[in-house]
Amino acid sequence: MSERAGRSGLVAAVPVAFLVVFFVWPSGHVLVRAFGAGALREVLTDPTFRRVLWFTSWQAVLSTALTFGAGLPAAYVVARYDFTGRRLFRAFVTVPFVMPTVVVAVAFLALLRPGGAFAFLGWDRGLAPMIVAQVFFNVAVVVRIVGGFWANLDVRREDAARMLGASRARVFREVTLPLLAPALVAAASIVFLFTFTSFGVVLLLSDPAHATLEVEIYRQAFAYFDLPVAAALSLVQIVVVATVLWALSRAQERSALPQRLVAADVTARRPRGRERLFVAGVIGVTTVFLALPLVALALRSVRPGGEWSASAYRALATRPATTTSVVSPGLAIRNSVLFALVATVIALVVGGCAAFAVAARSRRVGRPLDVLVMLPLGASSVTVGLGFLLTFGSPPLDLSGAWILIPIAHALIAIPFVVRAVAPALRSIDPRLRDAAAVLGASPRAVWREVDLPIVTRAFAVAAGFCAAVSLGEFGATLFLTRPEWSTVPVAIQRLLGRPGEANVSQSLALATVLMGLTVVIVLAMERVRVRHLGEL
Amino acid sequence: MATRWWRVVRAAAVAGAVALVVAGCSGGTDPGGRGSVTLLTHSSFAASPDVLAEFTARTGYEVRLVQPGDAGLALNEAILRKDAPVADVFFGIDNTFLTRAFDAGIFEPYAPPGLDLDPGVPADPQQRVTPIDRGDVCIDYDKEYFDQPGRPPAPTSFASLVDPRYEGLTVVENPATSSPGLAFLLATIAAQGDPGWKDYWRQLRANGVRVVDDWTAAYQTDFTAGGGPGDRPIVVSYGSSPPADVVYSDPPRAEPRVGVVESTCFRQYEYAGVLRGAKNQAGAKALVDFLASARFQSDMPLQMFVDPVVAGAEVPAEYRRWAVAPERPLTMTPEQIGANREEWVKEWSDIVVR
Lengths: 537, 354
Prior knowledge:
The complex is a heterodimer of chains A (about 525) and B (about 350).
Chain A (H helix, E strand, L loop, with lengths): L1 H33 L2 H9 L1 H34 L5 H7 L1 H5 L2 H12 L14 H24 L4 H9 L4 H29 L3 H6 L7 H10 L4 H29 L8 H4 L6 H28 L9 H7 L11 H31 L3 H16 L2 H11 L13 H24 L2 H9 L4 H30 L2 H6 L7 H9 L4 H34 L2
Helix pairs in contact in A: 1-12, 1-16, 1-17, 1-18, 2-12, 3-7, 3-9, 3-14, 4-24, 6-14, 7-9, 7-21, 8-9, 9-12, 9-19, 11-12, 12-17, 14-24, 15-24, 16-17, 16-19, 16-21, 16-23, 17-19, 19-21, 20-21, 21-24, 23-24
Chain B lengths: L2 H26 L7 E5 L8 H11 L2 E5 L4 H10 L8 E6 L3 H7 L2 E2 L21 E13 H5 L10 H4 L8 E4 L5 H14 L3 H11 L3 E3 L2 H8 L11 E5 L2 H7 L10 E18 L5 H11 L2 H11 L2 E2 L8 H6 L11 H19 L2
Parallel strand pairs in B: 1-2, 1-3, 6-7, 6-8
Antiparallel strand pairs in B: 3-9, 4-9, 5-8, 5-9, 5-10
C-alpha cells in the first residue's frame, strides 16, 4: 500500500507541475496584482453582486438538471443497445459541444423568430432560450461520460436482480444507480462548471439584465477597467467552484463501489420487440433536438438572401488573399486540427497521470489533486487569459511568440474530462479480479492486458474524443492569445461575423457547417483507435 | 503485480514532459527575427497584404499582428503589459478611451514628420498618439422595411426612436460591452444634454428598445438587413454600413439596403502610438509613419470601412458613393468623455437594464 501511495505521489507530480505552471501561477499573478481588500469587501456586501452570484448558481443547477433529463435516456440506449449508426450517433452528439456560441445563437434565433419552426413559442432573447442552449451544448457530456461508463457495467447483476423478482424501476434504483454514481457525479460536476461559468450563451441569447459572474467579471475588467473588482469577483467564483468540487469529489469517492467492469461490446445487444420502438424513440428525439439548430444553420449557409446557392462555399474555397482580417479557411482548419491533436496528447498524458493518482485512493494526494485538476473549468477565462498574457510574455518563461500556448490552454480545459472519464473506471476495477487472475497464474502483463486495458482504453477513448472536441470548439483562451496566423475555425467564424454584409454571415455559417463535419470525422477517428485496441484482445 | 502498469504511466509522463519542454522551447524562438515590428490592435484591423508588403519592401521590417479581441481587450493588454510590452505600436484606440491610455502612460511621444491632417481632425498636442482614421456611429435602418406600405416612414432623428409608431423596432448595443454602444450613448448625451439624456433613454426603454451586448449580435442577428434572422429594422451601426452592404452583398446588389440617420452620427477617431519600452523603436516609428501615409490610408476604406484623415489619401469610388459622413457630426472631447465615462455607463445601466 505504501509503495503504491509513493508511486501515486510520483505520478501526481506531473499534473501538479503542469497545473501550477500553466494555471495557478498565471491566474495567481493576475489576482495578486489586481487584488484589493476594499474591492473584496465591496463585492461581498453589494447586493448587485449577490444577485449575480445567486442567478449564476440557480441557472447552473437548473441547466445541469435539464441536461441530465435530456441526456440520460440517450446515454442508456447508447450503452445498452447495439444498433445501426450507434458510433455515428455518439460522434454526432459531440457536434453541439464544439459549435461556436455565436453561430448557435444565430441558429436558435432563426428557429424562434417569425418564419422559424418554433416561432409559436413566442420566445426571443431571454432566459428560456439561454437555458435550452446550455442543455444543447452539454448533452454530449452526459451521453459520453455516463454512457461510456454505463457500457462497462456488468448487465448480469441487473439480470440477476430481475430474475429474483425486482421490478425494472427497483433494479434501476437499487442496482444500476449506485453502480453508476461515480460517472453521474463526474458528468454533473463538469456540466455544472460549464454552466456556472457560462459566458457567450448569456451574452448572446439572454438579455443584459441577466449576468453570470463570468459576464460581470468581463464587464468590470473591460468596460469599467476596474481590475480590483474583477479580481475579487473571480476570487469569489474560484472559492464557490472549489467548495462545490470538494463536495462532489467526496461524493464521487464514496460512491465508487468496487465492481466488475466488463468490455463494452459484451454489454450491448440488438434491441428486440418493443425495445426497438424505445431505442428508435430515444435516439430520434435526441437527434431532432440536437439537429434542429444545426440544420437551421446549415440551411442558412446555402440560402443566402433566401435563394438556394453554394456561393458561400465557393467564396470560402476561393477566398482571395486580399485582406489580413480573415485567414484562409484552409489555414484555420489546419490550425484547428493541429491544436486539437497537440492538446489531446498533452491532456491525455497529464490527465492520465492525474487519473491514476486520484484513483489510487490516497486521500491526502487524491482529493486536493482532483479539485485542482477541475479548477480551470470553473475559473474565469478572463482571469486565465489575462494571466497567460501577463505571465508568459517575459522571463522566466517567455512564450509570447509561441503557438504552443493555445493547445496548452485547451489542454487545461480538456484535462478534467480525462480525469472524469478515466478515474471512475480505474476506481471501479475490482482488485479481486486482478488477484484472481494472478492466482490463476496470469503474468502481471497478462493481468494488465486482460483486466485493466480493455476498460481503461475505452475510458481513454471517450476522453480523447472530448479533448479533441474541447480544443476544436474552444474560443475564450484562443481569443486572448490570437495572432492571425494562429486563427482556429471558431476564431475565423467570429471574424467573419464581425464584418458587415450578408456574404460574411453566410460564409461564417458555411464554415460552421464545415466545422460540424470536421468534428464528426475527428471524433469518429478517435473511436476507431479504441476499436482497434479492443480487437487485439 | 502492477509494476508494469506504473512503468508505462511513468514512461508516458516523462515522454510527455519532455515533449512539452521541447515544444515550448522551439515555439519560444521568435519566428519573425530581428526584422519585424509588432502591431497590437483589435480584431477589426485589416489591411491588404500587398500594402503591408510594400511597407516591408520600403523599410525592411515585416509587420507582425497581435489581435487579442476587441478594442477594450487590446487596450487592456497594452496597459497590463506596459512594463514588458508585447508590441511596438498600438493602433485602434479611439477618442472614447484615449484618456485611459494617457493615464496609464503607455505611449512614447512621437509625431510623423510632415504629417498633413485634414482640417478639423483633433491631434494630441503632446504627440503621444497620431490620428489614423475616422468613422461615424449612427442610427441605421432597413430601407426595404420602411418602403413597405402601411409602415411608418424611415426614421429621421433621435425623436423618431421614441415615437410610438416605432415601438419595438430598435436594437442598440450595451455601452458597457460595446464600442459603438458607448458611442451611441455619448451621441445621446451630446444631443440631449446632461441630464436630458436620462429622460431620453427612459422613453427609449418605454418604447421597447432592445439592448444586446455587441455589434455582431445587434447587426448580424437582430437587424433585419444584416443577413441573419433579424427582426428589428433600426440598429446602431456605422455611417459606412451602406458601402459594406453593397461590397459584401450576396447575391450581388447595386444599391445598399441600409440607410443612415445623419443627425444621430457620433464621430470617432482612431489613433496609433509608439508603445513606451518598445523593443523596436525605429521600426515602431516607421510603422506609425506608414499608418499615417496616403498609401495605407487609401487602403483603409474598403478594409476597415473607415475614412482617411490625411491629405492626399484616395477614397475608392464605391466607398465614397455610399458612405455617409455628416458635415457636423456629434462629438465630445476625450477629456470630457474620460472624466464621465464610467459614471455615465453605470447610470445608463440603472436606467435601461435593471
